[in-house]
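Dear colleague,

Following up on Tuesday's group meeting, I ran the structure prediction for the two-component complex that the binding team flagged. I've pasted the input sequences exactly as they went in, so you can double-check that nothing got truncated or mislabelled along the way. The structure tokens for the whole assembly follow below. Feel free to forward this to whoever is handling the docking comparison.

Inputs:
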Amino acid sequence: MKILLKASLAMILGIFLFSCGQSKSTIQADDTLDRIRQTGVIDACTIIQPPLVIKDSKTGALSGVFVDAMNLIAEKMNAKIHWHETTFGNATAELSSQHCDIAVAALFSTISRAEVVAFTEPPILYNGLSAIIRKNNPLALKAKNILDFDKPGIIVSVATGSAGDTFAQEVFKKATLKKIDAEASDVARNLIEVSANRADIAIFSADVCEPYAKAHPEVTVLFRNPPISINPVSWAVRQTDFKWLHFMETALQFLDTQGTLDQLEKKYHAHYIRLVKQYRLQ
Amino acid sequence: MKVFLCLLQVALLLTLVACAKISQDTQTVDTLDRIRQTGIIEACVIPEPPFVIKNAKTGVLSGLDVDTLNLIAEKINAKVHWHESGINNFIADVQSGRCDVLAQSSLFAIIPRAMALAFTEPPLIYVGLTAIIRKNDTRFKNFKNIMEFDRPDITVAINTGAAGDLWVKEHFKKAQIKRIDTDAADATRFCVEVSAGRADLAIDGVDDIGYYASQHPEVIDLFRDHPFSLTPGSWAVRQDDVKWLHFLETALQFLDTQGTITQLEKKYNTHLLHLVKEYKLQ
């Protein structure tokens, strides 16, 4: 009887594991678009990074080029947005864990991030990586290439999970990387390490380095033009969320073609690198 | 033995539940596979020269989009079954499965429509907007912006449901709007309102307005060289028809790259707005 029981249990387990094994080879698609149609709510994660995402320090209200663009899309869908603040380090995890449906943030669509989330195509804009250094650092005048800083004894500050972090990990072999966990309220905290003389240079996106250097006269921006690298910036969704991804791509394409994205950049005095598009009658 | 049979029944039940769950999660339309088996593409179109031209005597269809889909069908050894649709029922026609594609590049890929259908990317054409006024209308000698016409004393004639209609709904708040229903035989009927002095301004795509202005010396085309708004146009399929959508995008990309789309436009003596693409040996 015991043998029979064991055999039957093994058989059950086998059948069930087989059925589960079948499911591994198939993709279970998300359907966020359908859920939004039913609930009228979009959960959007964002990262404060003026002028793309601006947070009013008194009211907490969000605005900026990306926030306004997403609000326009939601308006057309008769949907409301629940905004959630996140960081560069946590953005992809927030999507995977279904905490949000989309990351409306200045995420560089890097290959490593594309392993875990799907980015809207084509990129919304392009942003360069720059660096800041103290003006009194002798290297500030000598350095011509970012690799000039890859020396023992040099401390490079990066924000954990940011594109600067990925870049530094890939390129720097001898310098010491100092990873700073940024909070949603201050994603550029790694730049302070340079001002405070706890790091020699800090790497971050050009649009963050510029205003920081303006507000902190002790530092200057390196690799302003040309930047260390030009990176595509896109919004991200879950990889299996095909319909939602395609919808967002069409919506962004529409706003771009209509000139709405240009108007929003003007409204916020933003100046980003964009692909030159010319239209011609054939 | 009874225990064994009982457990076996439980196992089979669990397996069936698991299988049902899997099929529910992964159930997507596979039009491409069906076309491979049947050799038939069900396509909807809305007669609108030069995109879709219907011979009044024979009922035979031709035009840019008809020729384009016929070329694609030929490459996959399929035949196209054509169905006439309308501006008010094309979404239902595609969603209900009456047709696999709305092959109409003059269909605007606007955000509310993208909630219901998936549009091919990138857009096939762009429709730029312009406007006509009477040459002897001296009120607008020094105008600089289309928004200057949004005044309560101005009557704007537009083609119902066309690009100008969509734009005016969105942007004009004060002007009086006169919507004119046109048909394929006379798509510029609304422009006559300006010539006849029953409207001050007519707004629509550069192709229709430009043609009318070239035939009617009493009007002037205000934005011929610098359209004030662009709207993307694409074909549309069901949102969950991922493989078919991707196939069509690749096929259209191929025909575009090969210059076939340009040749078809020449064949139909058409001048549409396209993104300028330049290829260069690096």
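The domain at 128-230 of chain A is CATH 3.40.190.10 (D-Maltodextrin-Binding Protein; domain 2).

Cheers,
M.
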